[in-house]
Each structure stands twice: as C-alpha cells, then as structure tokens.
Amino acid sequence: MSAWLAMGGHGFFIWSSYGMLALALIVEIAVLRRSRRDAAERARAMRADLNQP
Amino acid sequence: MAAINWFRFASPASFYPLAGKLTGLFGWVAVLLAIAGLYVGFVIAPTDAQQGESYRIIFIHVPAAWMAMFIYVVIAFWSVFSLALNARLPSMMAQALAPTGALFAFIALWTGAFWGRPTWGTYWVWDARLTSTLVLLFLYLGLIALRSGIDDPRRADRACALLALVGVVNVPIIYFSVRWWNTLHQGATISMSAAPKMAQTMLTAMLLMTFSAWAYAIAAALHRVRTIIIEREALTDWVGRLVNPVQRQRQP
Amino acid sequence: MRPSSSPEPASALAALTWACSRDLRIALRHRGEVALVLVFFLLVGSMFPLAMAPDPGLLRAIAPGIAWVSALLATLLSLPRLFAADHADGTLEQLLLAPAPLAALLAGKVLAHWLTTAAPLVLLSGLAGLQFDLDPEDIAILALSLLLGTPLLTWLGAISAALTLGARGGSTLLGLLVLPLAVPVLIFGAGSVEAASVGLGAEAHLSLLAAGSILASMVGPATLSLAVRIAFE
C-alpha cells in the first residue's frame, strides 16, 4: 500500500496535484451551497423589509 | 425532441426547477465517470517507460486545460445570445460559468507545474500551452472583476458579454502568438504537448476524466445559476414562495 | 412638409474630424497631462536597470521587452483620459444623442488619443533605446513596431475603458482587462526587435502588427460604440 502511495518516488507531485484538485472541488461546492443559502436569506430579508410575503 | 418548446425555459422562473433536476443528474454522472476514469488511470494503465508514475497527473491536467478553454467558448456562446436577444438567462449562465472556468484554469496550471517538476526539472516552463492557460486565467479573472465592479445587473450582463466576445476572439490569437514566442525561444525539447506516447488505456482514462470534468462543470454552473436567479429575481412572487415556503394564503 | 427640428445628420468623415480636432485642442490645453504619460514611459524603463546589475549585454537583450512593457503601461495609464472628462461633464452622453454616427465620433476620439499618446511614444522610444545601448537599426525597428502596434493597443484599451466606465476598481480593473488582451501585441512587438537584432528579419512580426492594427481600426469603431452604449444603459 505504501509502495503504491509512494508512486515510484513521484508521490509528492501526484498527490499534490490530486490533493489540490480535491481541495478546489470541496471549496467550490461548499461556496456554492453557502452562497445559495445566503441568497435565500437575503431574499427573505429583502422581502420582509418591503413587506412582501 | 423538436416538439419541446425550448423557449419555455427561457424565463428564469421556469428554468429554475429544470436546473435543479439537472444539477443532481450531472453531478452523479461526473462522480461515476471520475471513478471509472481514475480506476482505469491508476489501476489498469501501466507505468510509463520515460516518466514513471508522474505522468498520471495528465489525467486531471489535460481535462482541466481543455475545460478551461471550452468553458470560455461556452461563455462566449451565451454572451452572443445575451447581447442579441437582450435576455437575462443567457447572461446568468455566462455569469455562472466563469468561476468554474477560472477554477479549471488554475487546476491546469497547478497540475502542470507539479507535472513539470519531476519530468523536466522546473515547476514552470513557460511552454506555449501553460502560458496561454495563464493568460486565459487572467481573462476569466477580468470577467469576474468586471462583473463585480458594475452595480447595475443588466449593465454588468452586457459589459461582460462584450468583454467575453472580445476575449474569445483573442484567445486563439493569444495561443498562436505564445506558441510562436515559445518555439522561437526554446526549441522543441520541452513541450507539455509531448505527453508520453499514449497507451490505449491512458487515452481511455483521460477521455473518461474529460467527460467527468464536463459533467461537473455543467452541474456546478447550473447550481450557481440557481443562486444567481434567486438573487436577481428576489422580489418576484415565485421566489417569495420558494424562500418562504410556509406562507399560508390568507382567506378573506 | 416635414418640419425639420433636428439638424442634418453629419457625415462620418465630418464627425470623425470634428471629434478628433476637439480632443486634440483639449489635449493641447492640458499639455501637462500628455507629457506626464511620456515621462512615465521613460521612468518605468529606467527602473529596470536600477533593479538589476546594469550589464550592457543583458540590457541590450532585454531592451525591446522593457521598452514595450513600458509603452504598454504608459498607454494603460493614459486610457482613463479618453473618456473620463467627457463622461464626468455629460459630453459623452451628448455624443450618444448627437445626429452623427457614434462610431465615427468615437473613432475621432481614439485617433486624437493615439496622436497624443502613442505617436510621441514612438518618438521617445529612440531615447529608451539609447538608455539600453541598442543599435540604431534596432532602435528603428523598435520605433516602427510601436508605430504599427500601438493602434491595436489603443483600440483594445478604448473598448476596455468604455466597458469599465463607472465601474469600481478604476485603473487596476482596466489593467486587468487590457494586459491579457495585449499579450499578442507585446509578443510580436518586442519580438520584432529581437528578430531584427539576431538577423532573422522583422518583416513577419511587423506585418502581423500592421494587420492587427488595420483589423482593429475596422471593427474597433462599431465595437467601441456598442461598449459606450452599454455603459449608458
């Protein structure tokens, strides 16, 4: 297993690449979900301010 | 297929639920294709004679680079509709795609650097494709910055649409000029296009990953466009029902 | 009989001439502003030798690149001048409503801008070349490349300036938009001098620059009109 992880000595480069991709995807998806919630919140607040149900 | 009136979905209100269903679908397609691609790429594909294991980075580097380029073209496509039809939804799609395109460009650069180091000795090689991708990343950032710099949404829509069209015309020019510059200064020794002579399994893995990236991009953009729709249509009735689901109709 | 309440629409050439001469007159009144850009050009160029060991061979090698980047930055800094004053006092809006082809009016403004910014740069490039000890032939190619490439740069800059009218982010946003688009001009502009200095001949580079500038001058006016209209919605 650790031999596979080492990837013939290139493990650092391979896992840095795939790791950054994983990080980027996690961040993007988290930001997507958060901004959707925030947008709904803001819409609710805006509508409440204007007394629209 | 022809019987479906596509223009029915041209309003944000009717597009919203469709986008929701498609997000989930494309998300799962992306996951399945990625699993298949990574399996072929890591378990089935052999070690490369020259590059060892590090070549396996191309399974994400090449799809990311292609998608970065492809998404920009799609943004330009939506920009044409945005300007020609003066419609909101195409602009919203363009707006939704830009961050994902920028992300792919960044990933292409990062993975390119980490592939370059073990293969050619340096993290950055100023090769034509990588340098063009860097310029492409700046073009994306320009689109995003212009969008956030203009307050009026419709003005921002049209300004970004025009910028995207000016950009898309320039992208091939930038690519060819950078390639010219690169071959003049470096000769053909270092070229990231010279991927290892690809075994069939390597190609299969790369194709699977590319389609996975494509499906992911669609899913992410559709998710993002739903947020954009909520923001921009906040005062409409249907968004009201969406964000305040427990409103009961008051009986007179 | 139709009562004519509005003046005769002007011809494209008349509009262009009018706009160009107007902007030239204004620029003459604000000579300092124009000179500032040129001083900046020389200043930026001087920064590079100061930032490294002023080895003559090295400087000669990087001179075309530095001259071109300095020209690019100087042009960038001068771009807000194209629309800022007219936008602030409402003239730009009047131009939109004027009975003259907007594309021609804007082309006149761009021409005046090029005459007062880029054309002097072409002349000053000789000075920059001397700073870096370039051969006279190379200096000539540098000046020619700037002459042929700056129209394209000016059009790219003008369109970007129109798109960023009233946007937050100012000159920095403008820079972020213009510089990536200017990469091909930079490559062929600086590359022309380099090609000439190693004996490969600069015709290919210069022809490409010329073609780009001609193309830009053909599609520029209409694109710029659209950009300005967008800014005023």
Describe this structure in words.
The complex is a heterotrimer of chains A (53), B (252) and C (233). Chain A is built from 2 helices and no strands. Chain A is an all-alpha fold and 53 residues long. Chain A has one domain. Chain A is rod-shaped and about 65 Å long. Chain B is 75% helix and 0% strand. Chain B is mainly alpha-helical and 252 residues long. The longest helix of chain C has 30 residues. Chains in contact: A-B, B-C. The interface between A and B is medium-sized, with 29 and 37 residues.
Fill in the keyword field for this structure:
heterotrimer, A: 53 residues, mainly alpha, B: 252 residues, 7 helices, 0% strand
Task: Draw up the topology in text.
The complex is a heterotrimer of chains A (53), B (252) and C (233).
Chain A: H1 2-6, H2 11-49
Chain B: H1 12-44, H2 58-85, H3 88-120, H4 128-149, H5 153-186, H6 200-232, H7 237-243
Helix pairs in contact in B: 1-6, 2-3, 2-4, 2-5, 2-6, 3-4, 3-5, 3-6, 4-5
Chain C: H1 12-29, H2 31-51, H3 56-78, H4 80-88, H5 91-97, H6 102-131, H7 136-163, H8 170-197, H9 203-231
What fraction, in percent, of the residue positions of chain B are helical?
Answer: over 70%
Oligomer: heterotrimer
Binned strand content of chain B: under 5%
What structural category arises from helix and sheet content of chain B? Answer: mainly alpha
Q: What is the terminal separation of chain A in angstroms?
A: 59 Å
Please trace the helix and strand order of chain B, writing H or E for each element.
Answer: HHHHHHH
The structure class of chain A reads mainly alpha
Largest sheet of chain B: none
What is the number of helical segments of chain A per DSSP (H or I, 4+ residues)?
A: 2
Low-confidence stretches of chain B: none
The Cα radius of gyration of chain B reads: 21 Å
The tally of strands of chain A reads: 0
Q: Judging from the principal axes of the Cα atoms, what is the shape of chain B?
A: globular
- Main beta-sheet strand count, sense and barrel state of chain A: none
Q: What is the tally of helical segments of chain B? A: 7
Characterize the overall form of chain A.
Answer: rod-shaped
| Quantity of strands of chain B, as a count | 0
What is the helical fraction of chain A, as a range of percent?
Answer: over 70%
Q: What is the string of helix and strand elements of chain A? A: HH
